[in-house]
UniProtKB/TrEMBL annotation:
<dbReference type="GO" id="GO:0008168">
    <property type="term" value="F:methyltransferase activity"/>
</dbReference>
<keyword id="KW-0489">Methyltransferase</keyword>
<protein>
    <submittedName>
        <fullName>RNA methyltransferase</fullName>
    </submittedName>
</protein>
<dbReference type="InterPro" id="IPR029063">
    <property type="entry name" value="SAM-dependent_MTases_sf"/>
</dbReference>
<feature type="domain" description="23S rRNA (guanine(745)-N(1))-methyltransferase N-terminal">
    <location>
        <begin position="10"/>
        <end position="44"/>
    </location>
</feature>
<dbReference type="GO" id="GO:0032259">
    <property type="term" value="P:methylation"/>
</dbReference>
<dbReference type="InterPro" id="IPR016718">
    <property type="entry name" value="rRNA_m1G-MeTrfase_A_prd"/>
</dbReference>
<keyword id="KW-0808">Transferase</keyword>
<dbReference type="InterPro" id="IPR048647">
    <property type="entry name" value="RlmA_N"/>
</dbReference>
<dbReference type="Pfam" id="PF21302">
    <property type="entry name" value="Zn_ribbon_RlmA"/>
</dbReference>
Amino acid sequence: MLGDVVDLLRCPHCGSSFVLESNGVTCPQGHHFDRARQGHLNLLRGPAGANADTAAMVAARAEFLLAGHYRPIAALVADAAVGLVAVEVGAGTGYYLHHVLDRLGPGSRGIATDVSAYACRRSAKGPRTGAIVADTWAGLPIADGVADTVLAVFAPRNPGEFARICAPGGRVLVVTPMADHLAEVRRARGLMDIEHDKHDRLLASMTTHFSHRESRPLRYDLDLSPHEVDLLIGMGPNAFHADASNASDPAPIRTTVAVRLDVFEPQRWR
Ligand SMILES: C[S@@+](CC[C@H](N)C(=O)[O-])C[C@H]1O[C@@H](n2cnc3c(N)ncnc32)[C@H](O)[C@@H]1O
Ligand SMILES: [Zn+2]
Protein backbone atom coordinates (compact mmCIF):
# COMPACT_ATOMS: atom_id res chain seq x y z
CA MET A 1 0.00 0.00 0.00
CA LEU A 2 1.02 3.56 -0.63
CA GLY A 3 1.11 4.25 3.10
CA ASP A 4 3.89 1.66 3.50
CA VAL A 5 6.32 3.68 1.38
CA VAL A 6 5.14 7.31 1.33
CA ASP A 7 8.14 8.43 3.45
CA LEU A 8 10.46 7.12 0.71
CA LEU A 9 8.83 9.15 -2.09
CA ARG A 10 9.72 12.65 -3.31
CA CYS A 11 7.66 15.18 -5.23
CA PRO A 12 8.65 15.02 -8.93
CA HIS A 13 8.24 18.81 -9.22
CA CYS A 14 10.14 20.14 -6.18
CA GLY A 15 11.82 17.15 -4.50
CA SER A 16 9.99 17.62 -1.16
CA SER A 17 8.59 14.76 0.87
CA PHE A 18 4.86 14.03 0.86
CA VAL A 19 2.10 13.96 3.40
CA LEU A 20 -0.32 11.06 2.93
CA GLU A 21 -3.97 12.05 2.61
CA SER A 22 -7.13 10.01 2.16
CA ASN A 23 -7.21 10.64 -1.63
CA GLY A 24 -3.48 10.85 -2.44
CA VAL A 25 -0.38 12.77 -1.40
CA THR A 26 0.58 16.47 -1.18
CA CYS A 27 3.97 18.14 -0.72
CA PRO A 28 4.53 21.34 1.32
CA GLN A 29 4.62 23.35 -1.95
CA GLY A 30 1.05 22.26 -2.63
CA HIS A 31 1.75 19.76 -5.43
CA HIS A 32 -0.99 17.18 -5.12
CA PHE A 33 -1.25 13.73 -6.72
CA ASP A 34 -4.40 11.63 -6.56
CA ARG A 35 -4.21 8.00 -5.67
CA ALA A 36 -5.89 5.85 -8.34
CA ARG A 37 -8.82 3.64 -7.40
CA GLN A 38 -6.55 0.60 -7.92
CA GLY A 39 -4.10 1.96 -5.33
CA HIS A 40 -1.20 3.28 -7.42
CA LEU A 41 0.07 6.86 -7.63
CA ASN A 42 0.90 8.63 -10.87
CA LEU A 43 4.04 10.77 -10.37
CA LEU A 44 4.79 11.27 -14.09
CA ARG A 45 5.53 14.86 -14.99
CA GLY A 46 4.03 14.43 -18.46
CA PRO A 47 2.05 11.88 -20.45
CA ALA A 48 3.32 8.29 -20.58
CA GLY A 49 5.67 7.63 -23.50
CA ALA A 50 5.16 5.17 -26.34
CA ASN A 51 7.36 2.63 -24.52
CA ALA A 52 4.72 1.98 -21.81
CA ASP A 53 3.36 -1.56 -21.87
CA THR A 54 -0.26 -1.72 -22.99
CA ALA A 55 -3.09 -3.35 -21.03
CA ALA A 56 -2.89 -6.39 -23.34
CA MET A 57 0.88 -6.76 -22.86
CA VAL A 58 0.55 -6.53 -19.08
CA ALA A 59 -2.27 -9.10 -19.09
CA ALA A 60 -0.16 -11.51 -21.19
CA ARG A 61 2.81 -11.02 -18.84
CA ALA A 62 0.67 -11.61 -15.75
CA GLU A 63 -0.74 -14.87 -17.16
CA PHE A 64 2.67 -16.12 -18.32
CA LEU A 65 4.37 -15.34 -15.00
CA LEU A 66 1.52 -16.85 -12.98
CA ALA A 67 2.19 -20.18 -14.70
CA GLY A 68 5.62 -20.18 -13.01
CA HIS A 69 7.81 -20.33 -16.14
CA TYR A 70 10.15 -17.65 -14.79
CA ARG A 71 10.07 -18.73 -11.13
CA PRO A 72 13.76 -19.76 -11.29
CA ILE A 73 14.59 -16.18 -12.34
CA ALA A 74 12.58 -14.85 -9.39
CA ALA A 75 14.49 -17.19 -7.05
CA LEU A 76 17.83 -16.04 -8.49
CA VAL A 77 16.90 -12.41 -7.88
CA ALA A 78 15.44 -13.03 -4.40
CA ASP A 79 18.63 -14.90 -3.35
CA ALA A 80 20.71 -11.81 -4.14
CA ALA A 81 18.49 -9.21 -2.44
CA VAL A 82 19.59 -7.46 0.77
CA GLY A 83 18.09 -5.15 3.41
CA LEU A 84 14.50 -4.15 4.00
CA VAL A 85 13.70 -1.62 1.27
CA ALA A 86 13.51 -2.79 -2.35
CA VAL A 87 12.76 -0.69 -5.43
CA GLU A 88 11.94 -2.34 -8.74
CA VAL A 89 12.03 -0.08 -11.80
CA GLY A 90 10.08 -1.04 -14.92
CA ALA A 91 8.46 -3.53 -12.56
CA GLY A 92 5.60 -4.62 -14.79
CA THR A 93 3.27 -6.69 -12.64
CA GLY A 94 5.76 -6.53 -9.72
CA TYR A 95 6.40 -10.27 -9.96
CA TYR A 96 10.10 -10.07 -9.03
CA LEU A 97 9.65 -7.39 -6.35
CA HIS A 98 6.97 -9.45 -4.66
CA HIS A 99 9.29 -12.48 -4.56
CA VAL A 100 12.08 -10.31 -3.15
CA LEU A 101 9.83 -8.89 -0.39
CA ASP A 102 8.69 -12.38 0.44
CA ARG A 103 12.34 -13.42 0.86
CA LEU A 104 13.33 -10.30 2.83
CA GLY A 105 10.54 -10.95 5.34
CA PRO A 106 7.66 -9.19 7.05
CA GLY A 107 9.65 -6.04 7.96
CA SER A 108 10.45 -5.32 4.33
CA ARG A 109 8.65 -2.97 1.93
CA GLY A 110 8.94 -2.11 -1.70
CA ILE A 111 8.29 0.43 -4.42
CA ALA A 112 7.33 -0.78 -7.89
CA THR A 113 7.75 1.86 -10.59
CA ASP A 114 6.65 1.59 -14.19
CA VAL A 115 5.76 4.06 -16.92
CA SER A 116 2.64 1.98 -17.62
CA ALA A 117 -0.36 2.61 -15.35
CA TYR A 118 -1.71 -0.80 -16.40
CA ALA A 119 1.40 -2.40 -14.95
CA CYS A 120 1.10 -0.39 -11.71
CA ARG A 121 -2.49 -1.52 -11.22
CA ARG A 122 -1.11 -5.05 -10.94
CA SER A 123 2.00 -4.34 -8.89
CA ALA A 124 -0.06 -2.31 -6.38
CA LYS A 125 -1.74 -5.56 -5.32
CA GLY A 126 1.44 -6.94 -3.74
CA PRO A 127 1.89 -6.91 0.04
CA ARG A 128 3.87 -3.96 1.52
CA THR A 129 4.20 -2.49 -1.98
CA GLY A 130 3.62 1.05 -3.21
CA ALA A 131 3.13 1.28 -6.99
CA ILE A 132 4.26 4.47 -8.69
CA VAL A 133 3.82 5.47 -12.34
CA ALA A 134 7.20 7.01 -13.19
CA ASP A 135 9.61 7.15 -16.12
CA THR A 136 13.01 5.73 -15.16
CA TRP A 137 14.76 7.96 -17.70
CA ALA A 138 13.10 11.13 -16.42
CA GLY A 139 14.33 10.57 -12.83
CA LEU A 140 12.85 8.54 -10.01
CA PRO A 141 10.54 10.25 -7.47
CA ILE A 142 12.34 8.48 -4.64
CA ALA A 143 14.49 9.90 -1.82
CA ASP A 144 18.30 9.71 -1.82
CA GLY A 145 19.98 6.62 -0.36
CA VAL A 146 16.87 4.71 0.75
CA ALA A 147 16.92 1.58 -1.44
CA ASP A 148 18.84 -1.41 -0.08
CA THR A 149 18.05 -3.36 -3.25
CA VAL A 150 17.30 -1.83 -6.64
CA LEU A 151 15.97 -4.26 -9.27
CA ALA A 152 15.88 -3.83 -13.04
CA VAL A 153 14.60 -7.03 -14.66
CA PHE A 154 14.32 -6.83 -18.45
CA ALA A 155 13.74 -3.12 -17.90
CA PRO A 156 15.32 0.26 -18.78
CA ARG A 157 18.08 1.48 -16.48
CA ASN A 158 19.27 4.86 -15.26
CA PRO A 159 22.62 4.29 -13.48
CA GLY A 160 22.85 7.87 -12.17
CA GLU A 161 19.44 7.62 -10.54
CA PHE A 162 20.17 4.12 -9.22
CA ALA A 163 23.31 5.52 -7.56
CA ARG A 164 21.34 8.37 -6.01
CA ILE A 165 18.60 6.17 -4.47
CA CYS A 166 20.84 3.21 -3.50
CA ALA A 167 21.64 3.01 0.24
CA PRO A 168 25.26 2.64 1.41
CA GLY A 169 25.82 -1.13 1.58
CA GLY A 170 22.98 -1.64 -0.89
CA ARG A 171 23.09 -3.21 -4.33
CA VAL A 172 21.58 -3.06 -7.78
CA LEU A 173 20.39 -6.31 -9.36
CA VAL A 174 20.07 -6.29 -13.14
CA VAL A 175 18.63 -9.20 -15.14
CA THR A 176 19.24 -9.23 -18.89
CA PRO A 177 18.73 -11.90 -21.56
CA MET A 178 21.75 -13.71 -22.98
CA ALA A 179 22.12 -14.04 -26.75
CA ASP A 180 20.35 -17.42 -26.95
CA HIS A 181 17.45 -16.53 -24.61
CA LEU A 182 14.27 -18.02 -26.14
CA ALA A 183 16.25 -18.69 -29.33
CA GLU A 184 13.89 -21.46 -30.47
CA VAL A 185 10.83 -19.19 -30.10
CA ARG A 186 12.62 -16.39 -31.92
CA ARG A 187 13.52 -18.73 -34.76
CA ALA A 188 10.05 -20.29 -35.04
CA ARG A 189 8.24 -16.97 -35.00
CA GLY A 190 10.74 -14.78 -36.85
CA LEU A 191 11.34 -12.42 -33.91
CA MET A 192 14.07 -9.87 -33.25
CA ASP A 193 17.48 -11.18 -32.15
CA ILE A 194 19.18 -10.10 -28.92
CA GLU A 195 22.15 -7.83 -29.48
CA HIS A 196 25.43 -9.68 -28.82
CA ASP A 197 27.11 -6.74 -27.09
CA LYS A 198 24.24 -6.24 -24.61
CA HIS A 199 26.27 -7.40 -21.59
CA ASP A 200 29.30 -5.29 -22.47
CA ARG A 201 27.07 -2.25 -22.78
CA LEU A 202 25.41 -3.01 -19.43
CA LEU A 203 28.78 -3.23 -17.67
CA ALA A 204 30.08 -0.09 -19.39
CA SER A 205 27.04 1.97 -18.39
CA MET A 206 26.71 0.70 -14.81
CA THR A 207 30.40 0.87 -13.86
CA THR A 208 30.31 4.65 -14.28
CA HIS A 209 28.55 4.63 -10.88
CA PHE A 210 28.94 1.12 -9.45
CA SER A 211 31.45 -1.67 -8.91
CA HIS A 212 30.54 -4.91 -10.62
CA ARG A 213 30.46 -7.57 -7.91
CA GLU A 214 29.39 -10.71 -9.81
CA SER A 215 27.46 -12.25 -12.70
CA ARG A 216 25.17 -15.22 -12.09
CA PRO A 217 24.04 -16.92 -15.32
CA LEU A 218 20.88 -19.04 -15.35
CA ARG A 219 19.94 -21.44 -18.11
CA TYR A 220 17.08 -23.97 -18.31
CA ASP A 221 14.60 -25.45 -20.79
CA LEU A 222 10.92 -24.56 -20.98
CA ASP A 223 8.20 -26.55 -22.73
CA LEU A 224 5.59 -24.11 -23.97
CA SER A 225 2.15 -24.73 -25.45
CA PRO A 226 1.16 -22.67 -28.50
CA HIS A 227 -0.94 -20.44 -26.20
CA GLU A 228 2.03 -19.89 -23.90
CA VAL A 229 4.21 -18.99 -26.88
CA ASP A 230 1.56 -16.42 -27.85
CA LEU A 231 1.63 -15.01 -24.31
CA LEU A 232 5.42 -14.81 -24.36
CA ILE A 233 5.35 -12.91 -27.62
CA GLY A 234 2.42 -10.74 -26.57
CA MET A 235 4.14 -9.59 -23.36
CA GLY A 236 7.45 -8.61 -24.90
CA PRO A 237 8.81 -5.87 -27.11
CA ASN A 238 7.81 -7.88 -30.17
CA ALA A 239 4.19 -7.02 -29.34
CA PHE A 240 5.01 -3.62 -30.79
CA HIS A 241 5.57 -5.32 -34.17
CA ALA A 242 2.22 -6.66 -35.30
CA ASP A 243 3.74 -8.68 -38.16
CA ALA A 244 5.77 -10.83 -35.79
CA SER A 245 2.89 -11.63 -33.43
CA ASN A 246 0.62 -12.52 -36.35
CA ALA A 247 3.06 -15.11 -37.74
CA SER A 248 1.32 -17.83 -35.77
CA ASP A 249 2.72 -21.34 -35.75
CA PRO A 250 0.54 -23.52 -33.50
CA ALA A 251 3.24 -26.10 -32.56
CA PRO A 252 4.44 -26.46 -28.95
CA ILE A 253 8.06 -25.39 -28.52
CA ARG A 254 10.87 -26.47 -26.21
CA THR A 255 12.95 -23.37 -25.70
CA THR A 256 15.96 -22.18 -23.71
CA VAL A 257 15.72 -19.61 -20.95
CA ALA A 258 19.15 -17.97 -20.78
CA VAL A 259 19.48 -14.91 -18.56
CA ARG A 260 22.14 -13.33 -16.42
CA LEU A 261 21.87 -11.59 -13.07
CA ASP A 262 24.52 -8.92 -12.53
CA VAL A 263 25.11 -7.55 -9.05
CA PHE A 264 26.42 -3.99 -8.68
CA GLU A 265 27.50 -2.19 -5.51
CA PRO A 266 27.90 1.55 -4.96
CA GLN A 267 31.52 2.61 -5.40
CA ARG A 268 33.16 2.94 -2.02
CA TRP A 269 34.59 6.41 -2.59
CA ARG A 270 31.21 7.92 -3.33
C1 LIG B 1 9.95 -6.20 -20.58
S1 LIG B 1 8.90 -5.45 -19.36
C2 LIG B 1 9.55 -6.11 -17.83
C3 LIG B 1 8.59 -6.01 -16.68
C4 LIG B 1 9.04 -6.73 -15.40
N1 LIG B 1 10.31 -6.23 -14.91
C5 LIG B 1 9.10 -8.21 -15.64
O1 LIG B 1 10.19 -8.69 -16.02
O2 LIG B 1 8.09 -8.89 -15.49
C6 LIG B 1 9.51 -3.78 -19.34
C7 LIG B 1 8.68 -2.87 -18.46
O3 LIG B 1 9.32 -1.59 -18.41
C8 LIG B 1 8.34 -0.58 -18.56
N2 LIG B 1 9.05 0.58 -19.10
C9 LIG B 1 9.46 0.82 -20.37
N3 LIG B 1 10.12 1.99 -20.43
C10 LIG B 1 10.12 2.51 -19.17
C11 LIG B 1 10.64 3.70 -18.59
N4 LIG B 1 11.29 4.60 -19.33
N5 LIG B 1 10.44 3.91 -17.28
C12 LIG B 1 9.77 3.01 -16.52
N6 LIG B 1 9.26 1.86 -17.01
C13 LIG B 1 9.44 1.61 -18.32
C14 LIG B 1 7.26 -1.18 -19.44
O4 LIG B 1 6.01 -0.54 -19.28
C15 LIG B 1 7.27 -2.64 -18.96
O5 LIG B 1 6.36 -2.85 -17.91
ZN1 LIG C 1 6.25 19.53 -4.74
